[in-house]
């Protein structure tokens, strides 16, 4: 019953005009900040650890701004899943670095687009899938009734989804070798056997090795991307990856990937997913970032 109610609510939210969805999202974010909800508290911890140069007042202000964007992401995403590629195209206000993306897409050895959790990452995936052959990993949501809604939306614009297992990774490699594209969210904490520690914002973060492993198996080009929220739509950004990401040395490649993530975050720090417990895993002997119970 709870899943059914959640699904109905998401479908109803999907019919809201973008402007109204964002107003309601900002209202939710305002409440979360006022009641010091868990996402707000985690955001403050991450900001204090990653941006130690900020004063306490600035950390609280940025965490509060992040809650406004967090709420907007929640309310605008169901509309993205429901609406057409043409509607989305009409909401793309500008594309910075489009020549970087096109140069990568022209590469016969495939393109790996790394999309940190900045702005609204669903926008990048849906927009790209309508412009290039794209194969991406897909992990069904914990709420299984959402699977049809999300999967249908992502496949509607042309994406081919494969499971998050060895068979899916093999499919990615084959797709890249055919000159196709894959999009990966590079700033999620992987399982221990799928990552290694590398510096991110001056902290050691368990970092996924999937992109580095894909590059070892293909001659693909890497591009970083994000969709920043602006009034009336989104502004897309595409950036070249640091050259060291192509290094055959895993540690060098991972450091370069995290450096690219930092460059994307710097475009609009308040739009980054600071409420995510990115540093749950810590190197042996390192103090915990998050107190127990948070």
CA-atom Rg in angstroms: 19 Å
Helix content: 40-55%
The coarse overall form would be globular
* Head-to-tail CA distance between termini: 28 Å
Q: Give me the number of helical elements.
A: 11
Overall pLDDT level: 94
Biggest pleated-sheet summary: 5 strands, mixed
Low-confidence stretches: none
The secondary structure category is alpha/beta
* Record field, number of beta strands: 9
Adjacency order of strands in the biggest sheet: 1-9-8-2-5
Elements, N to C (H/E): HHHHHEHEHEHEHEEEHEEH
User: What share of residues are in beta strands?
Assistant: 15-25%
Structure notes:
By secondary structure, the protein is α/β, with parallel strands linked by helices. It has a domain at 84-271. It has 11 helices and 9 strands. The protein has helices at 2-13, 18-34, 38-50, 56-82, 85-90, 98-105, 121-129, 147-156, 166-177, 210-216, 250-267, and strands at residues 92-96, 111-114, 135-138, 160-163, 181-184, 195-200, 203-208, 221-230, 233-240. Strands 1-9-8-2-5 form a 5-stranded mixed β-sheet, with helices on both faces. Helix 2 packs antiparallel against helix 4 and helix 3 crosses helix 4 (56-82). The radius of gyration is 19 Å and the shape is globular. The two termini are 28 Å apart. The model has no long low-confidence stretch (mean pLDDT 94).
